[in-house]
Amino acid sequence: MKRFFPKSLVGQLLTLVSITLLIAQAINIALLYRGAQNQKLAEASVSAVFRLAGEIERINDRGIDQLRLRRDGSARRNHPILSANSIIGAGQKRLPDAEERARYAFDNMGASLQAVEVARVDRLPANMTNSVIGMGDPRRRFGSAGYRSEPARVDGYLIMSAQIADGQWLNIASAIRGQSPVLIRSLLFQTVVIYLILLIPLIWLGRYISRPLKKLTKAAEDFRPGSSELIEESGPPDTRQLTAAFNEMNARVGAMLDEKDVMLGAIGHDLRTPLAALRVRVESVEDDDERERMVAGIDDMDRTLDDILSLARLGRSRETAEQTDISALIETVTDEFNDIGADVSFARTGRITANIRATLIRRALRNLIGNAVKYGTQAVISVDKYGDKDGDKLVIHIDDNGPGIPEDQIASMFDPFVRAEQSRNRETGGSGLGLTLARAIVRDHGGDVVLQNRAEGGLRASLILNQ
Questions:
Q1: Between the CA of residue 131 and those of 39, 82, 159, 174, 406, what are the distances in Å?
Q2: How confident is the model at residue 421 (pLDDT cuts 50, 70, 90)?
Q3: Which of 210, 222, 219 minimizes the C-alpha distance to 247?
Q4: Contacts by 296-301 with C-beta closer than 8 Å and gap 24+?
Q5: Composition of the chain by helix, strand, coil, percent to 5
Q6: What is the DSSP letter of 456?
Q7: Terminal CA-to-CA distance of the chain, rounded, Å?
Q8: Are the CB atoms for 408 and 373 separated by under 8 Å?
Q9: I want to staple 438 with a disulfide (CB 3.0 to 4.6 A). Which of 197, 247, 367, 395 is the partner?
Q10: Is 163:169 a contact under the CB 8 Å cutoff?
Q11: Ramachandran angles phi, psi of 407, nearest 5°
Q12: Are 190 and 32 in contact (CB under 8 A)?
């Protein structure tokens, strides 16, 4: 059922209203059809009562022997027949309500009867074929062969038996007319008109509501903190309030981020200034080993500070995304590591482009390649492409031959300042923010970074980007 149910607001609204309207109209049609059936049955009953009442009046005036009524059904056409017992048998469908109304009608007309029985049958008994009323004259219609007669539509027969004073029964059959095709066509036309009258305004209302909601959804999906672009307020009051609240939230987020950037700038300045002064003073230390350790500690503090500031400012980069040759970018980073003696290799497979902010992706690559070189002896880079329902994906694999990471610790490696045990410790240097910053950069591009141990040993870091 969910497979065929619409996902959009307008579709669900129209489907719900259509189903509800269909059920209501089906009930209405059933009630109208049943009412029409009861009306046809009442008409047949009234016709039978008047015919029997007229016959009883003639019997009272002229005597039963003077009337041409026979027991074998050969009476005059459309006239009742006489029988010693009621023509209605035990297996026929009796109509108690019709019997009650018939007795009341007979009493009002002054016809004295001992009993009245009424039944509905689909087929007439053989001896009553000449005692049927309500058939009317055959209708005449003009066709291709001239005028032709058509029999009346009959949906069954009502048989009424009235016991007169001498104990005999007068029996008459009244045709129950079938439903006219005009009624069916009228009901169908009524259904179509109701659907048009209700659904057309609902379609307009649904679009009036959903259009600004789609804009708001798109803005939320593309949300960038502090974006100054406001969404136009449109639609009904509730939707306008929602859009206004979103715009106000966007403005507040932007204001908070601006304050954060100012604060980070002040922190960076206040920390780097004493670090620079300390670096100058360290140069005066005569012990070479001690001086190198002190300089390394200051450099480590400076890199940690730079990583923290970069991570905090992520998402506020002023660099615009543009189509970039990924292979050329990887080669540039590879050459940087080769220049310092690191064993980093990359086999170019042709021009592969992606819409990225090159400076940030370059930094993410440096962090991942740096980890591979630091905890292994070499780094092998490869590029792969695959497609899925969201579009083409570009994957940069960075393989090392290090000790890998225990499976239960891989997820925590992306947490700030977290390191695995064994060789990945503080002595190897680093701030513990490399993987955190790399994944944050790639996720800001709509991708992700995945770590997994290789079957042949070592760790594979996969940088996934949308093309």
A1: 22, 11, 10, 8, 100
A2: very low
A3: 219
A4: 296/429, 300/429, 300/430, 300/431, 301/275
A5: 50, 20, 30
A6: T
A7: 36
A8: no
A9: 367
A10: yes
A11: -55, -35
A12: no
**Beta carbons of 397 and 347 less than 8 angstroms apart:** no
Asked if 379 contacts 385 with a C-beta cutoff of 8 angstroms, the reply is no
pLDDT in tens, 227-279: 667 788 888 888 888 888 888 888 888 777 777 777 777 777 777 778 788 87
Residues with Cβ within 8 Å of residue 359, at least 6 apart in sequence: 317, 319
Q: Which residue in this structure is represented by tokens 């400012």?
A: 313
d(CA 420, CA 415) in angstroms, rounded, equals 11
pLDDT in the model for residue 210:
82
CA angle 212, 218, 219 (to 5 degrees): 90
pLDDT at residue 430, as a whole number? 54
Whole-prediction pTM: 0.49
Sort strands 379-388 and 344-346 into parallel, antiparallel or unpaired.
parallel
Residue 98, H or E segment? helix 96-108
Q: What is the Cα–Cα distance from 302 to 431, expressed in whole angstroms? A: 10
Q: How far apart are CA 192 and CA 185, in angstroms?
A: 11
How many CA atoms does the CB half-sphere of 80 hold within 13 Å? 29
Query: Please, how many CA atoms are within 13 Å of residue 452, restricted to the half-sphere of its CB?
Result: 8
Q: Are 191 and 142 in contact (CB under 8 A)?
A: no
Q: pLDDT tens digits, residue range 60-81?
A: 877 666 555 555 444 456 778 8
Question: What is the bridge-based pairing of β-strands 93-94 and 391-400?
Answer: unpaired
